[in-house]
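Sharing a chain and its predicted structure for anyone who wants a worked example. Both blocks are below, sequence first, C-alpha cells second.
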Amino acid sequence: MKKKKKNKNTIDQTSEHKKSSLKYHIQKLSFAGIITAVSVVLILPSFKIFPAANFLEYNPSDIPIILASMCLGPLWGGLIALAVSAIQALTISAQSGLYGFLMHFSATFVFALVTGLIFSPTSDKRKEIFGSSKSAVLRVWISLIIGGVASALIMIPMNLVFVPLFMGGTYKDVVPMLLTAIVPFNALKMILNCSATGVLFISSKPVLNKLHSK
C-alpha cells in the first residue's frame, strides 16, 4: 500500500513538473514574440547620429533583441535577430535587399549572441545575476561591452567584403570610408545600445526575476 502511494506521489510530482515546465516555455515564447514585435516597430524611428556618415542611420531596434538574449539566452536572441532582420528586409527596408539583411543580421546576431553567451545565467547563478549586488551589475556591463565590441569588429570584414560586392568598386575604396565613417558610426551605435540596454535591464529586475523564478 505504501509503495502504491509513493508511486502515485511520484507521478503527481512528475505531472506537476511537466505543467510548470510547459508554462515556463510558453512564457518564454510569449516574451520572445513581444520582443520581436517591439523590435520591428523600433526600426521605424531612424536617426542620423554621425555627421560624417549621413548615409548611415541609427534605430533602437537592437536593444530589445539584446535584452532578450540576456533574459532568455543566446539562442533566443539569435532567433529573434534573424526574424527581425528578415521582416525588415522584406518590408521596411526592402530596397536594400540581401545586402541590408546580411549587414543588419550580422551586427545584431553577433551582439546578441556574444552578450547572451557571456551573461546567460545557469540555474545556480540566477539569484546572483538577477540580483542587485555589485557583481551582478558589473556582469551586465561587461557582457554588453564585450558583445558591442564584437559586433563593431565583425562589421569591419563584413563591410570590406559586401560593400564592394553589392555597391561596386574594390575593398581599397571602402577602407577610407571605414576609417572616417563606418567604424566611428558603429562605435557610437555600440555605446548607445550598450547604455540603453544596460539601464533598461537593471531597472527591469523585478520582471526578470519573475520570468526566471521557475
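Comments welcome. The longest helix spans residues 2-41.
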